[in-house]
Amino acid sequence: MTVEGILQILLVLILMFLFGIPLGRYIYTIFSLQHSRMDRLFMPVERFLYRLIGVDSSVSMDWKAYLRALMLVNFVMLLFAYLIFRLQGRLPLNPDKIPGMSPALAFNTAASFITNTNWQNYAGETSMSYLGQMLGITFLQFTSAATGLVAAIAFVRAIVRSKTDNLGNFWVDIIRAHTRLLLPMSFLLACVLVALGVPETLQGAAIVHTLSGDVQVIARGPVASLEAIKQLGTNGGGFFNANSAHPFEDPTALTCVLEILAMGVTATGLIWTLGLFLKNRKQAIVLYVFLTAILMLGTFIIYGNEAAGNPLVHQAFGIHGPNMEGKEVRFGIPLTSLFTAATTAYTTGAVNAMHDSLMPISGLVPLLFMMFNVIFGGKGVGLLNILMFLIITVFLSGLMVGRTPEIFGKKIEAREVKLATVAMLVHPFVILVPTAIAIATQVGRASILNPGLHGFTEVLYAFTSAAANNGSAFAGLNGNTEFYNLVLGVVMLLGRYISILAMFAIAGSMILKPIIPASEGTLRTDTFSFGGVFVAVFVIVGALTFFPFLAIGPIGEQLQMMHTVSHIVH
Amino acid sequence: MVNIIRSIRFTIVFAVILGIFYPLAVLGIGQWFFPWQANGSLVTFHHHKVGSMLIAQAVNQPGLFQPRPSAVQYNADGSGGSNLGPTNPALLKEIQQNIQKIEKQNPNIPIQEIPTSMVESSASGLDPDITLRDAQLQISRIAQVTGLSKNWLEQLIKKDTIHPTFGIWGVPMLNVMQLNLAIEKKLQNSKE
After folding, report:
1. Which residues of B touch A326 (CB under 8 A)?
2. Helix (H, G, I), strand (E, B), or coil: what is residue B26?
3. Among A48, A496, A514, A561, which one is most buried in terms of CB atoms within 10 A?
4. Which site among A87, A97, A193, A208 would you substitute to test the B interface, given the most B Cβ atoms closer than 10 Å to its Cβ?
């Protein structure tokens, strides 16, 4: 680690807050439905869209109506994308003559993109037509991000409103999320990305005759438009197989910085939005301090391990230097480390280095971040997870000090605690059980690339990534088999929707409760000591649940590696 | 039922806006203002398209700079890394083969001076850049094969070094295509 390297990382994080906080304020104005100067620009467009879709914007919805609309439209979009992927071979905009996907792969891909996971069992350049990239992938990258966002907003409304059952109007919210936030931001970022070298063309692959006289087929396409929402919507599913490591997706160190900012800026902003809704900025600041500290800690662990390099390589050949296997020169180790930590903290899942080739302890960091699933987290759902863990923390602290637990002035009772526990337990359940099944069966083990404990980590990583709706991979694992396509697809759906269902059920009872004014006896959630307990809760829950698996995986591999190195020395 | 129809209408309307209009709008801006970048940063030499500035290609001539090793043989239609884990014996074997190749091409380099980036495969398999040290180690070979002076090559490296953005982000590095085009042009001029 060098001072310059640390500075590279810190400067990006400072920029993250410089952009994130004003964005959080803007998101607040969008969803508190206040009148703003922007209305004159957006209102006519939105009214036109309401008419096209048949939305009555004056209707208010309780939690069941809101949830029903959300689930239905998600289901319809899932079917739509499935059909596109199956039929892309016969549809237009397919200059490279790419065939349709198999049913299992099409299901996996549709489930992956509707859940904002973006796990990819296909290689973009050879298995996805331009139409598939646009109408399937880019489309769902917007709508899945918007879905997560409005789910979080609805929950926050349930906290701050009382004696009503009105969570807002789902259709109005999801349309405004596009017109006022995702679409303008993506358009702007996409144009900047093109200027910096990301292609945007409908011409098929370029065929060139290289300086050595060979023929090289260079895949390209409408990359920039996808890349922008891929990052901004914390999606992560790349146009190309190599994702953000591909020079066409991420051509320079500057685009790398922009892509890191793009994936974190909304999650960062949303915590500020929460603070504004609660009229309690300190709550946002407390969360910022702890979450940023964990993000930085993870980044520096990766940075330190990768910069030190692979001791086995030093030992065997006497060459020294950072671990460059599966990395690109232009990003440098510091930005690569930050990208790796950020993509799992913000549950984006884009990668600009191959996580499978990270040093064992570096690979542990993204795994842990996905297991926690609350280090800022993905579009909206990250905030939902944070709120879920806050409820659990309030409950536990309430037990410890013998007070009725309450959060943001609302009593937490048996129903909420039960539902929050369901939301919390789904995550380890859909990771650990399928991992065990995969390891116990021949079909599960056959897909593993690397031998030994690392191979186990590949499987664990896959299910963790699917459950956290992250989408990054230890990509040595061959996921394009019937077994992994189906099981990962189901895990992604369960990981996404069970916790959304549970959180909406909590919202439904929370919104009816009166707000109790804070008194001497109130357990404050906006203090640093409470923040510390919050971190302790999700770390302990994470550690207790996942530790045995981590011990067999990356921790075991690290110990084996140290053992081998010390053996050769003696 | 109303919600089902509304969901279908939403899907169709937004699929068209987000999946067609939006990419086409970016396409319009890109092709109008940045046509070179938007089409893949392709470079022409002798009136032929010879590759992309951003995509590494296999270099067989010893008189040109070599890019980093590629796990996909520089297949620009199938990017990817090796995905070999740090403790996989296959990784050590791959690195050993790369070291042997480097040693064969550049006989006088001490092994411990080889940077890891020169013998470890890139993430995309298409990394267009190499580190300064990597380029410097290739100078003697290129000078010997092409007859270009070491001094000229050193100046070329100095001139073409890509510095970190705003002096902060990234590492000093060199684009292989840029270097090789400069060499080809120089050789052509000296022939004429």
Report:
1. 81-84, 120-123
2. helix
3. A496
4. A208
- Report whether pLDDT(A543) > 80: no
Count CA atoms within 13 Å of residue B59 on its CB side: 22
Chain A residues touching B180 at Cβ < 8 A: 211
Contact B125 A242 (CB under 8 A): yes
Mean residue pLDDT across chain A: 95
Amino acid at A90: R
Q: What does the pLDDT look like over A162-185, one tens digit per residue?
A: 889 999 999 999 999 999 999 999
What DSSP string runs through A167-180? Answer: -B-HHHHHHHIIII
Helix, strand or coil, per DSSP, at residue A411: strand
The whole-angstrom separation of Cα A21 and Cα A212 is 51
Residue B49 has a pLDDT of 95
Distance from the A458 Cα atom to the nearest Cα atom in chain B, whole angstroms: 10
What are the boundaries of each domain within chain B? 1-39, 42-191
pLDDT of residue B157: 97
pLDDT at residue A493 in the model: 97
Three-state secondary structure of A209-255: ECCCCCEEEECCCEHHHHHHHHHHCCCCCCCCCCHHHCCCCCCCHHH
Chain B interface, mutation test: which of A200, A209, A323, A460, most B Cβ atoms within 10 Å? Answer: A200
Residue A3, pLDDT above cutoff 70: yes
Distance (Å) from the C-alpha of residue B85 to the closest C-alpha of chain A? 5
- Strands B42-45, B48-52: parallel, antiparallel or unpaired by DSSP? antiparallel
* Section A189-205 average pLDDT: 97
Q: How far is the C-alpha of A361 from the C-alpha of A365, rounded, in Å?
A: 7
Q: Are A50 and A175 in contact (CB under 8 A)?
A: yes
Of A7, A194, A457, the CB nearest to B37: A194
Mean pLDDT of A235-249: 96
What is the rounded CA–CA span in Å between residue B121 and residue B128?
12
Least Cα separation, residue A323 to chain B (angstroms) = 7
Q: Which amino acid, one-letter code, is at B164?
A: P
- Alpha-carbon dihedral of residues A253, A256, A261, A266, nearest 10 degrees? 170
pLDDT exceeds cutoff 80 at B79:
yes
Residue A524 predicted with pLDDT over 60: yes
pLDDT of A537 strictly over 70: yes
Using a CB-CB cut-off of 8 Å, the residues of chain B touching A80 are: 11, 15
Residue from B1, B13, B17, B26 to probe the interface with A (highest A Cβ count within 10 Å): B26
Determine how β-strand A406-407 pairs with β-strand A215-218. unpaired
d(CA A168, CA A156): 11
pLDDT at A568: 62
* Percentage, residues of chain A above pLDDT 90: 91
pLDDT over 80 at A521, yes or no: no
Q: Which residues of B152-191 are buried (b: 16+ CB within 10 A; e: fewer)?
A: ebeebbeeeebebbeeebbbebbbbbbbbbbbbeeeeeee
Q: Do A325 and B86 touch (CB under 8 A)?
A: yes
pLDDT at A569 over 80: no
Q: In this structure, what token pair is assigned to residue A177?
A: 């999320």
- Give me the pLDDT at residue A535, please: 96
Chain A nearest-CA residue for B80: A242
- How confident is the model over A448-470, as a mean pLDDT? 95
Total beta-carbon pairs less than 8 A apart between chain A and chain B: 385
Of A330, A552, A359, A372, the closest CA to residue A453 belongs to A552
Task: Write the pLDDT tens digit of every residue in B176-185.
Answer: 999 999 999 9
Task: Find out whether A368 and A341 touch, Cβ atoms under 8 Å.
Answer: no
Instruction: State the complex-level ipTM.
Output: 0.96
Q: From A180, A133, A350, select the one nearest B15 (Cα to Cα).
A: A133
**Closest partner residue to B6 among A53, A327, A560, by Cβ?**
A53
